[in-house]
Every structure is written in C-alpha cells, then in structure tokens.
Specification:
Helices cover 55% and strands 19% of the residues. It is α+β, with helices and mostly antiparallel strands and 169 residues long. It has two domains: 79 residues; 51 residues, Roll (SH3 type barrels), CATH 2.30.30. Strands 4-3-2-1-5 form a five-stranded antiparallel beta sheet. The longest helix has 30 residues. The N terminus is likely disordered.
Length: 169
C-alpha cells in the first residue's frame, strides 16, 4: 500500500517536473501554472481503486487559490511601489549597457504584462535596475520650510514676551 503511494507520487513528480521544466527553465519557483499542472498530473495518475480523498483535493484547491491571491497581491504591491517613484530622482543601471547608469527624475511608468518599466530621461528601466532613490528638490524645500515655521506655542511665547515688554514701559 505504501509502495503504491510512493510509486504514484514518484510518477506524478517526474511528469510534473518534465512539464514545469519546459515552462519555467529560467525561474526556479513554482507558479500558478506549474501548481495546476501538478494537480492535474496527480489526478491523472491516481490509483482508480484508491482515489484521492475529498479533503486532500479541497486542501490542494485552497492552496492553489491562496497562491494565486498572493501573486495578485505581489503584482499590486509592485505597481504601487512603481507609482510612488514617479517624480523621484533615481539612479539606475542602464538596461542596454549594464556598465553605465541612468540618472534623473522618473517621468512615467509603463506596465507590460507582469513587467513594470520606469521612464528616466527617456530610457525605460525596470524596478530591479534601480540602485538609489532620492527625494525631489521640491520635497526637500518643503521639508526645510516646515522645520522653520514656528509652532503655535512658539507664537504664543513670542506674543507673551512682547506684551510683557510693553507692560514694563
């Protein structure tokens, strides 16, 4: 009984590895498609006399759904991260010549499938190419001004000291 399960599992894994190796040779992580292929292959090679338990199947479908939701969340996070870089000054590796860098303000972003490109000085770079991110000059000036603006308590103290100075005359 245990030998049959091990043999079925070995067959499933070898079939799945052949399928997924052709689809994701450059990527060592399992994605939605590989997980679905593994599930279908497991169903195809299961022992007809001992079919998969309902609980196991439901658990695997739940894992598949969780994997899909995590990938969607990751894509959304990457897009938000790229949107927050618009207007920022960045230094990035030039995609056409990795020995050079591109510097400048991020003008726009472009989404192409799952890839996000940032336009810096007319050159499109991916978020993976970004080496440094700086605040823009306007943010630095605004931050500097905000630190120099007196607070309400400072103004009340100044007013109070002026009133005391007038009272002593």
């Amino acid at each position: 009984m245990a030998d049959t399960s091990i043999n079925n599992l070995t067959g499933v894994l070898s079939q799945s590895s052949r399928i997924s190796s052709s689809q994701s040779s450059s990527n060592n992580t399992l994605g939605k498609q590989e997980f679905l292929n593994l599930l279908v292959t497991q169903l195809r090679y299961q022992d007809p006399l001992k079919p998969m338990e309902d609980k196991e199947f439901v658990a695997q479908l739940a894992q598949f759904s969780a994997l899909e939701q995590m990938q969607n969340l990751n894509e959304s996070f990457e897009l938000i991260k790229a949107q927050n870089m618009i207007g920022r000054y960045v230094v990035a590796t030039n995609p056409s010549d990795t020995s050079k860098t591109v510097e400048g303000r991020v003008d726009s972003i472009r989404v192409d499938g799952s890839k996000i490109y940032l336009k810096v000085n007319g050159v499109e770079v991916t978020t993976e190419n970004i080496k440094q991110i700086y605040h823009t000059y306007a943010e630095e000036v605004l931050s500097d001004i905000m630190t120099k603006v007196p607070t309400k308590d400072d103004l009340l103290n100044i007013l109070d000291s002026l009133q005391k100075g007038e009272d002593s005359k």
